[in-house]
Description:
This protein is mostly helical.
Amino acid sequence: MTREKATALAATVACFALVPLDYAPFVALASAIAVMRWMPRLKVAAEVEASHQLRIALPIAIDVMSLALDAGVPWDRAAGIAADCVSGSLAQDLHLASSRLAMGASADEVWRGSPTLLLIGEAVERSFRSGAAVTELLRQLADSQRASERLRRIENVRRLETKILMPVTFLGMPAFVVLGVIPTFAAMLQQMDFSWLSTS
């Protein structure tokens, strides 16, 4: 049974337990429909928020790891320190990498299991292949992640401007008529002399 169905069933049982029996079937049906309709949307919203938090935290974690390596901290401790600076799935991934490094796992084993670890693993692999300082490659990765997030926010703002245009057009014009044109027209009517209508 999925979480949505289990929650809908629990809501139905609660309705029959708390609502008077005459209204319980209708309230239970409405509650079940609401749960089945809105829980997937809430789940999607939570996933979007988690992804957003991950994109913000990832450059910070990479910078912390790079600074720790520059200071001479071993790889496993550097990953652990970076994990302590963030939360959620990113912290879990970095703690997992730290444990693997402490056990002496190979680079292929350490940096696998999630897209985040794969990103860091690609920077480490490029360092091994090219001989470039891994800390410099990690800083470049953090900067590129920040730049990608900045571009994503700009695109979101542009899409938001397009979405706002329709409501502003259809709600702004009637409001302008109601608040601006009608009072002006009413004031003009009050100032006009209609006495000639009564004499005729």
